[in-house]
TrEMBL record:
InterPro entries linked to this entry: DUF8212 (IPR058525), HET (IPR010730)
Domain Heterokaryon incompatibility: 22-110
Domain DUF8212: 221-246
PANTHER family assigned: HET DOMAIN-CONTAINING PROTEIN (PTHR10622)
Superkingdom in the source lineage: Eukaryota
One Pfam family, short name: DUF8212
Protein name: HET-domain-containing protein
Species: Pleomassaria siparia CBS 279.74
Taxonomic lineage from the root: Eukaryota, Fungi, Dikarya, Ascomycota, Pezizomycotina
Length: 295
């Protein structure tokens, strides 16, 4: 695992059994992010360097010698390293001492978050697929505005975060997300987006405790593979508790073949819509239909 030294802003590598305490950054990617190659070459004239430098300074002031930032702690030119990193990322966030959630499009003011609630909810950070695990995995999440003024924590803002995300307060206050059924967890991702369609699946692997190889170019097949992996490790019929989503620009919903959903958005109503009786009837009907189909 690579970590940034908060004093030198240089990358250091550690074996899995030698990793020191570290803080971790959650953010949305902007223009001119600093890469690992930029750090190694000393090419630090991009816009993204300010964010890295300020994050390291904040971590150092909090007493930490190391921090982890995805833009420059992963060699994205190596497909094998990228795959290993994405499969490990949930654990890396989970093992961090503090996660700094940096909302680059939220400006603080003298008013509280409650008074600025609309601006807080409209931050792009709440719409990204990857930030879901970055919210859930760490024990401590601290939110910061564009100028690195602390807004609050996952615990202190749990009521507002529940309203924004649909994630119940129990989970935000420390309950294990894996104790929620598959449909509920999928519903947390239903309104989130990723730049690459395959990442809709890859960003959820840690939340469902599964691993699988990355195959960029496979499109929505990645989400099918995710559901297949979930079925292998957990018997939870709420995986089938979804409804086709109407996609803007198409006259018909994007319907997946078989029992598996097309994308996380198909679970958008699953948290509240399906009772246990409804689900039992649905699953029974699917199996009856399957077994009655002529071979």
């Amino acid at each position: 695992m690579r970590l940034l030294n908060t004093s030198t802003i240089q990358v250091e590598e550690f074996l899995s059994n030698e990793i020191p305490e570290y803080v971790i950054l959650s953010h949305t990617w902007e223009e001119e992010e600093i890469t690992l190659q930029d750090i190694q070459a000393g090419a630090l004239n991009k816009k993204g360097y300010t964010k890295i430098k300020t994050c390291c300074s904040k971590a150092a002031n909090d007493g930490f010698l190391y921090c982890w930032i995805d833009t420059c702690c992963i060699d994205k030119t190596s497909s094998s390293e990228l795959s290993e990193a994405i499969n490990s990322m949930y654990k890396w966030y989970q093992n961090s001492r503090i996660c700094y959630a940096y909302l680059a499009d939220f400006e603080e003011s003298s008013a509280s978050v409650i008074e600025n609630y609309r601006s807080f909810t409209e931050s792009r950070w709440w719409t990204r697929g990857w930030t879901l695990q970055e919210l859930l995995a760490p024990n401590v999440v601290e939110f910061y505005s564009v100028n690195w003024t602390e807004i609050g924590t996952k615990l202190s803002l749990h009521e507002q975060i529940t309203e924004i995300t649909g994630i119940d307060e129990g989970v935000l206050c420390g309950a294990d997300p894996s104790r929620r059924n598959v449909a509920v967890r999928m519903s947390w991702a239903a309104r989130r987006n990723t730049s690459r369609i395959e990442d809709q699946a890859y960003c959820l692997m840690g939340l469902f405790r599964v691993s699988m190889p990355l195959l960029y170019g496979e499109g929505n097949r990645a989400f099918i593979r995710l559901q297949e992996e979930i079925m292998r490790v957990r018997e939870d019929y709420t995986l089938f508790a979804w409804s086709p989503t109407i996609v803007p620009g198409y006259s018909d919903p994007h319907i997946s073949k078989g029992l598996l959903a097309y994308s996380p958005s198909d679970f958008i109503d699953s948290r509240d819509r399906w009772t246990l009786r409804d689900l039992s009837r649905f699953v029974a009907g699917c199996f009856i239909s399957f077994h009655s189909t002529p071979s």
